[in-house]
Amino acid sequence: MAPRRGGGGGFSSSGSSSCDYCLEEMQLFGYHWQNSKVTGLFAMQIILIPVLVACIMLTVRFKWIRERGTDKLRNRGYVIAAVFLIIDFLLRVITTGLQESEAVVTHLFYLAYIFQVFFSRIGYVLIVAIIARTITEDVGVLSQKLTSFAVGIFWVISLVDIGFAIAWDAELMAMGYVEDIAVLGSLYMDILLSSYLFAFTLFLSVLAILAMIKRRSKGTLLMLVGVIPALFLMTLIDLALEGAAFDNRTGKSDATKSLMDLSYANSFINVLATMAIFLVIAIIGGLRQRSDANGLTQDPKYAQPGPHYVA
Asked: Which CATH number fits domain 36-298: 1.10.260, 1.20.1070, 1.10.3470, 1.20.272?
């Protein structure tokens, strides 16, 4: 799920901290729209933006409630996640357009990558937290607490990764190269983030299956057949890419072409999975629910506690 870094950097251990290169011009390089992979990905990212806008409009149908009122995470959090990813993919479209046009820009261009990684990380953390809460409503209290703790760790890892990613692009913007600590920090944090999210996805998959066995509902079924497979595939490919990128950057392997192909595959899957996740969650959120005495969601036609979704 991580956007690729904006530019390369050599290993160095010293340099000025002032913005010596910020206003220095540089020419971007692209394929002049002759690369079908770039053009196809560009088109898909453009399509995703109005899809996310439509998902935001569907939130007026959301009926998630909890003991003390509306479920802020799954109502407001969903909107914030969608808005952040709209900004993320809009920045991707703009930067791709500039690169394919081989525009001449200043080093301030790297600000686009800084904003992109921030909005991308926060947006995906929020949507994963929403997925986790929706799944764990149908399981025991212990699983809910473990999942909340896991989401908290995910937040911490993501924020640290954001810091290293910002340092990477800020140094490129200011000095024209990246120092060792930012390079190595980004490499290890990207691997850690991808590995943790993949493991967390497996954990959520098990919980979704248990929830389906314990109490069948349309919402749980949609989560199991729509959201979980999309999240699993997205995190699996991202982990494979980060592993290959780590080996390539540390000199353990040299497979630049294969790495580029995997990067494009990851980007395509990222767009499709994001689209599927947001659309399915929007459908689940629109199913009729009400709050029971325990603060969980429940449809009036059922007596037992826990969430139930009906058309």
From this structure: 1.20.1070
